[in-house]
Amino acid sequence: MTNVKFPDNFLWGGAVAANQCEGAWLEDGKLPNVTDVMVGIIKDGKTPDIKWDGQHWVMDLKENKVYLSHDAIDFYHRYKDDLALMAGMGFKAFRTSISWARIFPNGDEQTPNEAGLKYYDDLIDTMVHYGMEPVITLSHYETPLHLISEYGGWTNRKLIGFFERYVRTVMQRYKGKVKYWLTFNEINNAFKIPFAAAGVVVDPAQGEHALDGLTNQMVYQACHHMFVANALAVKACKEIDPSAHCGVMCSFSHIATYPINPDPDNVLGTHLFKRNHYFYTDVMCRGHYPNYIKRVWEKENCAPTMEDGDLQLIHDYTNDYIAFSYYRSSVFSKDVEMKSDTGGAIGVDNPYLKEKSPAPWSWPIDATGFRYVCDELYDRYELPLFPVENGIGLDETEVDGQTIQDPARVKYLKMHLEALKGAIDDGCEILGYLWWGPIDIVSAGTGEMKKRYGFVYVDRFNDGHGDYHRSKKASYDYYKKVIAFNGEEL
Ligand code: BGP
Predict the structure, then answer these.
(1) Domain range for 335
(2) Ligand 1 atom nearest 42 alpha carbon
(3) Which of 68, 69, 436 to mutate to test the pocket of ligand 1 (most atoms within 8 A of CB)?
(4) DSSP3 helix / strand / coil % (the chain, rounded to 5)
(5) What is the pLDDT of residues 382-400, one digit of tens each?
(6) Helix or strand or coil: residue 338?
(7) Which CATH number belongs to the domain containing residue 182 in this structure?
(8) Which of 41, 93, 288, 306 is within CB 3.0–4.6 Å of 133 for a Cys-Cys bond?
(9) 489 lies in some domain
(10) Is residue 157 part of a domain?
């Protein structure tokens, strides 16, 4: 592949999410969102810290828990220095989310919170100043909590209008500055982590926890509302700034699911498992509900309720690029129930993959799977692809100011960039590459600091202590060199 080149203007950079880095969880008018009442969206996924007060679901934080995300890495106050560090690596793009509850703290206000907008004005201007393309997620597991308490979350149709108002507000404000928008982070995790990914809660009469008694119909209903909201975001984007792009965002490690052997039942089972994830892009990028899902609704009697005009909107306003996360592959066996977490699917071990991220996470490393996912997606949709999350979490502690040596991160990065070159060689159109967590942040799945993805180290620990000091790891210089030579030397 010596003559394969990354395109000119390739968007090299990194990605974070407001709820995992900003902290300042109740500052300048912001109110809680769904991730503020959890320590890890996988760990606390089914039992967020809310309770029924007789009328509403209300916040019920536990004294013995450390909610690291409430202060996170204090990016809210340190973003200028942090972006300067990213600029030092030559970043051409930086992805973060706008925290919906900073702009509309309850979610249902008529007018936005000016203090929240002011914060993002300066954040986005700072990125532009450094020549970085802002890549903005509109909701990265960040539905305002009030929309859960008062309306029951995304199963309520009213959320479509609240989301549209928020989207139009920020698209208007950042017109001409933000060219890449993403709607819902990893929307295809709706069934796995319904509270975080689809803001779903159930009738309190059902049980002790907010998700006891959850039905498939409720999740499909929330998804339908999110699909309509997604279409309205695409519409707003086209109307407000026709030069901007509005993408879908999915956890597509799931697509790198391999059958355990050629037993046709395993091959078919793998196909059916993957289709549960293609479902989301099939709707949002092809513009209609596929037959296979209508059959599921019929058989299980779980079709969502729709209103006139919904299907037309979904048809008319499809997303124009596909953003996705890729961390690892998995293996399907008809004898084992598939599970998943923030890294993707979990099936049986793959004996061909000898390397894993360190325990306790132990995510298998499979760069070829990255190329495979790009090829599958491009062949199916023929839309530009944007890998906006790829990375490895390692357990590291800086000792006496010594630079952290992180060869495992450098190796992971190099392997995955080689695989991406392979995908380009296979004919895929790739917009850029964003490393997940270029600066250490709070883990989404487990809510810990210990799992570090950064090229930049942050002095903060699981028990909450630390002075937030930043320092470069050895991988910082590696990525800087990669970017400087546009990936020619890996
Ligand atoms: C994705 C999420 C991110 C993120 C990443 C790594 O699913 O979009 O928010 O954090 O996974 O997961 P974790 O932080 O659990 O290691």
Answers:
(1) 11-484
(2) 15
(3) 436
(4) 40, 15, 45
(5) 999 999 999 999 999 999 9
(6) coil
(7) 3.20.20.80
(8) 93
(9) no
(10) yes
